[in-house]
Amino acid sequence: MNGRVVVVGSINVDLVVHADRLPLPGETVLGGQFARFQGGKGANQAVAAARAGASVTMIGAVGDDAYGTDAVRALADEGIDTSRVRVVEGPTGVALIGVGARGENTIMLAAGANERVGEEDVELDSLRPEVVLTGFEIPYPAAVAAVRSARRLRATPIVTPAPARAVSAELLALDPVIVPNEHELTVIIGNDDPAAALDELTRRSGGAVVVTQGPAGALLAVRDRRERFNSVRPKADVVDTTGAGDAFVGALAAWMAGGASLEEALHAANAAGALSVTAAGARGALPSRAAIEELLRA
Ligand code: RIB
Questions:
Q1: Domain span at residue 287?
Q2: For residue 138, what is the domain's CATH number?
Q3: Has residue 26 been placed in a domain?
Q4: Which amino acid residue places its CA nearest to atom 8 of ligand 1?
Q5: Strand runs labelled E in 214-267
Q6: Quick one: 294 exposed, middle or buried, by C-beta within 10 A (0-12, 13-18, 19+)?
């Protein structure tokens, strides 16, 4: 069953250099060839959900430059409804990304048009979503508004708390599903010990917390319950981990929107994340639903 996913999130262009190792502060390293890819956590999640079988609407903003035109076209080419993407004066969001030999990355973001996404953009009633995705590459009030609207419409809100920042009591009271990596987990709750941070987060919010742990899979935490979901490994090398979290969240949303339980959706999300790192670029290897199902069967 196809479900409807709405993404209220960021749209970027990614400017990427691969190098044998990432530079330290103050250091210059010689990299390989420069490449430009479509990116933005929100837009990547939208594409991941669409390829995983969901009907997707993207809400966000691009600048009135060539990057913005390309970004919207790329989303539309994936079958995503882009009628709610605004074109605003100024530059599209740009991410400067370095990728090291093991596929690890660092990202620096110039938010550009993403900063102009506001609460007024978050009108979800007419879209009738089953799942609403949002994150912090757009202004925080817009992300909170997306979660609030999702709750009002009885849709499942899923928050990717990146770039990491402290989360408010107002957001936690809405019990969204929160999907941080271990670093984001410590920052959003302000506790350097990941286990203690998780305990505190699940005390303050009744929503599920899914901690992504790269090749180790994911840890599901709800109140006092802790359950590990191991990742599956495709038979291919890791090339670029950029966007692996977005692949995970997009598939999670598509499966849940289609009626799967959170637990069933987590297996699919792990498979999507594992497949997504096997080619360059955040969207280079975002898998189809068929590819995810094939890896799950294997
Ligand atoms: O999660 C990966 C994404 O983070 C990149 O595509 C980049 O645009 C940044 O938003």
A1: 4-14+40-94+115-297
A2: 3.40.1190.20
A3: no
A4: 40
A5: 218-222, 225-229
A6: middle
For 16-31, what is each residue's pLDDT tens digit? 999 999 999 999 999 9
Within a 10 A sphere around the Cβ of 249, how many other Cβ atoms? 31
250 CA from centroid of ligand 1 (Å): 13
pLDDT in tens, 230-272: 988 887 889 989 999 999 999 999 999 999 999 999 999 999 9
Q: Quote the CA–CA distance of 230 and 218 in Å, as a whole number.
A: 7
For residue 283, the ligand 1 atom closest to its alpha carbon is: 6
- Chain-centroid distance, C-alpha 102: 21
Say if residue 167 is exposed, middle or buried (CB neighbours under 10 Å; 0-12, 13-18, 19+). Answer: buried
pLDDT tens per residue across span 191-225: 999 999 999 999 999 999 999 999 899 999 999 99
Pocket lining: 240 vs ligand 1, CB cutoff 6 Å: no
Q: Is the CB of 243 under 6 A from ligand 1?
A: yes
In angstroms, rounded to a whole number, what is the distance separating the alpha carbons of residues 178 and 210?
A: 6
**224 Cα: distance to centroid of ligand 1 (angstroms):** 32
Q: Which contiguous run of DSSP H or E holds residue 276?
A: helix 262-276
